Give the backbone structure.
Amino acid sequence: MPLSAKSKEFLEMFAAAGAPPLGSVGVAETRASFDGIAAFGGPPVPVAMVENRKIPGPAGDIPVRIYAPENTSPTPALVYFHGGGWVIGTLDTHDPICRHLTKETGAVVVSVDYRLAPEHKFPAGPEDCYAATCWVADHAAELGIDAKRIAVGGDSAGGNLAAVVSLMARDRGKPKIGFPLLVYPVTDHSYDTASYRENAKDLLLEKDSMVWFWNHYLASPADGENPYASPLRAKDLKGLPPAMVVTAEFDPLRDEGEAYAKRLREAGVPVKHKRYDGVIHGFAMLTGVFPEAAQVVADVVGEIRAIR
């Protein structure tokens, strides 16, 4: 289908705000520009509690933001990793989607402010995210979480990190992850897909943006072969938990996300995949603009509640 009216409207608003294309300027300016995207999240959704904390990580403390729902019984947990190409993005840029997820799923959501590149290149981000997930599992009782019902999730680079943490947990034997939510995830250090060719320009995320992000994230191109950077390149996806993969039609990352869903199925992993037609990369975090963002949350409610 054609680009949706909401997608066109957002792109016009983003351009009118004077935001440069992602990756077209320096890191500091790109970060400052992207921080303003939180304004498109709509009014803050109330939740029972929001707390900023610091937890121990492999190279120092990791800031996290914990969102608690109204219910008091042990709940599922969703450890959430924000998008932004491993270079940009903050707890604040993804505050809207984390609030929506907390309210609708009834889960405790722990948003992780992992180390960013280029100051901290691969594998700093994945190791922080894995450490944070282990911390949530180890502190389940304190957080009011059922330790047997832990999910991980994220969008874009955060979706990559959720897939990678699932691989790490399988390979390292802990913690038990019940469900990964992969929203238009980066899965491969490659630009050779139809969706890259079809959506290379004039969208929020462009091919040049991804080249810029990958170049900042990896210490060398050889790191892109590592399945903890490119989970699509993992030799074996058997033993991973049931997953949900969300893709967007007008997104350079569409095909690699769908290829990862296919690989999961081929490995015998239950996976649900949904492509949102007419929308652009980033729509799920823009809860104040895209009605489809609410649908993503609605689609995942049953999956989070069903973790056993």
